[in-house]
Amino acid sequence: MTLLLNENHLDGLLSVGEVIAAVEEALACQQKGEVLSPMRMSLSGADRTLLAMPALTPVGAGVKVVSVVPANAATGLPVTLGIMILLDQVTGQPLCIIDAASLTKQRTGAVGAIGIKHIAPPDTDRIGIIGCGVQGTMQAIYASAVRPIRTAFVLEPSDSVYDRFVAQLAKVVPDLHVVRCWCADDVLGRVDVIITATTSAVPVLPDDRRLLAGKAFVSIGSFKPEMQELPDGVYALASTILVDSEHAIEEVGDLVNPLQKGLILPENIVPVGRLSSGEPRFHKGDTAVYKAVGDALFDVFVADAFYRKARQQGVGFPMDL
């Protein structure tokens, strides 16, 4: 039997800590050479993107197929929609079909939190967020699980998106205070840790090194070569760039462009899986960058965790394919 898990099934099935642990396990296996995860296939046209992401791992095999349609945000639909198929690693039997939008937002929240653990001081109690859509919301929730965040200073031009962001945070992290800002300079002036969660093709922060120096940046939204969320000045200031996937240097403008311009060198780019999960990599006053593009192996490990918990709790719809 194959289990079907929709968004309602996944909501609250795993704790934030359990999702983070699944991604950290994936990173550990990645560094041991125990996974096969090729660069994702991407097809773009008419302002939408189709992505296919397979992976073979010790916990199972899987493939995620999603569409990314930025215009969905204006209608209330998730920007990312699709399905994740989890397969038995020995027999290839389809074990589970999972709503990809819900899976992606949670595993990406976890990927961002792992970056925060490495680049943000342990006492960080305020963050800046550029973009308050689904990923901006999840980044706030997951960052609050790894740092004592009390205030989020956010930039979001859409009133409806901002209102949904505030309402969701009130349910999940009610002690987190949200302050709305009206320009990126204002956000930079109030915080030392900034998360960008947009699909922008051009940098969403000013290229002013006086404002950028000594701050920590998590870029979570850009995922194609023509997308760059962070300005060139960030890369000129940073001595090391942490990434969640080795494919990032080929997949996203936030690395492709600085590499082509000579602002960073390949040896400056470090996979976050190589680092110990216990201590921050950077010190106060450093300009730190963590670029996340996602990887199919994260989807498989998190999908496996959801599947095992669903089986334990009798959650989901069994199907005979």
Any overview of this molecule?
This protein has 321 residues and is of the alpha/beta class. The chain has two domains: 127 residues, ornithine cyclodeaminase, domain 1, CATH 3.30.1780; 172 residues, Rossmann fold (3-Layer(aba) Sandwich). Strand 7, helix 4 and strand 8 form a beta-alpha-beta unit. Helix 4 packs parallel to helix 5. The mean pLDDT is 93.
Topology:
Blueprint: E1 2-5, H1 7-10, H2 16-31, E2 41-45, E3 48-57, E4 60-68, E5 80-87, E6 94-99, H3 100-119, E7 126-130, H4 134-146, E8 151-155, H5 159-172, E9 177-181, H6 184-190, E10 193-196, H7 209-212, E11 216-219, H8 232-237, E12 241-243, H9 248-251, H10 253-261, E13 269-271, E14 288-291, H11 296-313, E15 317-319
Parallel strand pairs: 1-6, 7-8, 7-10, 8-9, 10-11, 11-14, 12-13, 12-14
Antiparallel strand pairs: 1-15, 2-3, 3-4, 4-5, 5-6
Helix pairs in contact: 2-3, 2-11, 3-4, 3-11, 4-5
